Amino acid sequence: MGGVLTGAMLGHAGRDVLLLEAMDYLGGCSGTFERSGHSYNAGATTFVGLDPALPLGYLSRTLGVPLPVKSLDPSLRVHLPDRTIRLFRDRTQLMDELSRAFPEDDHQGLWRRIFRVSDAAWSMILSLPPFPPKSASELLSFLRPGSSLLMRGGPDLLRSGRSVLSRHVKTSSYRNFLDQILLITNQATSEEVPFLSGALGLSYPTLDNYTVLGGMEAALEAFARKIPSVSRKTLVQKIERVGGFFRLQTTRGAFDAQRVIVNRDVWGVADLLDDPTLDRQQEERKVRFRHRWGAVTLHFRIRDLFSGDFELHHQIHHDTNPWTGSRSFFLSLSDPEDDRLSAGGFRSVTISTHTSLSPWEGISREIYREQKEQVSRFILESLNRHLPLFRHAEKGEILTGTPRTFARYTRRTGGTVGGIPLRREFFPLGYPSALSPLPDLYLVGDSTFPGQGWPGVAVGAIGLVRRLEPGLL
Fold first, then answer.
1. Which residues is 314 bridged to in the sheet?
2. What gap in Å lies between CA 322 and CA 82, rounded to an integer?
3. E strands along 168-271, which residues?
4. Could you give the residue range(s) of every CATH 3.50.50.60 domain in the chain?
5. DSSP 203
6. Could you say which of 168, 179, 237, 343 is the most buried, measured as most Cβ atoms within 10 Å of its Cβ?
7. What pLDDT, in 10s, does the model give residues 171-199?
8. Contacts of 168 (CB under 8 A, 6+ apart)
9. pTM over 0.85
10. Rounded distance, CA 60 to CA 51, Å?
11. Right CATH number for 1-89+207-446 from 3.20.20.150, 3.30.1330.120, 3.40.50.300, 3.50.50.60?
């Protein structure tokens, strides 16, 4: 999505932009793919933030890109072993729901602090200068909104997530509930995250959430119409510096460009170029940012037997999955009005769960197949316990993806998904930048900005374009 959003902004500015996409669909881990004539979103997620003050809403309006979306409220239903919680946009409804589910915990005190920080951060996120600052002038321009954020958000901005939560959270069930939401939005738990990023992540259900009719690819295609030229099934194999420009060797021939923006994770970008500085930087980042996640995904069709008020997004908690180490998974169900994902009386299902990368590395094909079958069975059994309708409803073929799958199709290093966890030891200035050591070579995507998902990648892309085209946005 980083490449599409960046290309759309530069195309809107009248620049000569060519987007090279390795696959036959846009978006990589965030796109929509087809198998055997059926469509599935690659990842299980909501589409967040079309308010004009939020990143996607800002881009949609600035670029004049209408999006085919349908509002969701509640955005998510969370299933614990003995109760369910609906995450409403309305804060009073949310507090009532949490008080019912966790009567022993101090929700008012905790969420007052969460909303104070998150409201302050969301209100100024679009005014941030390019991030992280890489020069004295950029640092000075960053200090002004940073000091304003500190004044409005208060001293909690500097605290750890766990230190704030511990004052209000009394039960382990509530702490785990919050931690599993943070894993979706921060790729880390309250023990690891700074409270600033934790507050942004926990507040996301109270932002405007949507489903995209036509799949996530429909949103990507809408933005991509701003790009002068898009070439699919065009794998970039090598990038070389030739005089004053770059030459990109691809599966569809060579292309020359004055500037190149690479939407690839920071652990693999140097593989495209012969440059010792990039090589050293990449090896350092493999050590520094070694804590990263992969995903196991399930995709299938299910007969539409659901009531009209059945939520489209569910997080299901379970005992520790022995094959992934995860304790929850996220399920997205296509909207019944979606002509592409809900066709022929069936609806599309995407399930995603975190996994460590190591269980999927260095194993034989036979062990790999067995692990895929076991993890799929574990997830489906948990799903059937919490949502019994899924047990007996007619289903199509179940497609199971692992880090190996993501490495093969999206070429993410090691099958990594979800960006770099937002850990306190690096946040915010210790994360990679969109700048590379080479002039006119830039990076974009979820590992080049300390944020996650559509909002985080959009903010990172906006910051890069502001560097390239000052005054454009």
1. 77, 331
2. 22
3. 209-212, 229-231, 236-242, 245-250, 253-257, 260-262
4. 1-89+207-446
5. T
6. 179
7. 999 999 999 999 999 999 999 999 999 99
8. 105, 106, 107, 109, 110, 113
9. yes
10. 10
11. 3.50.50.60
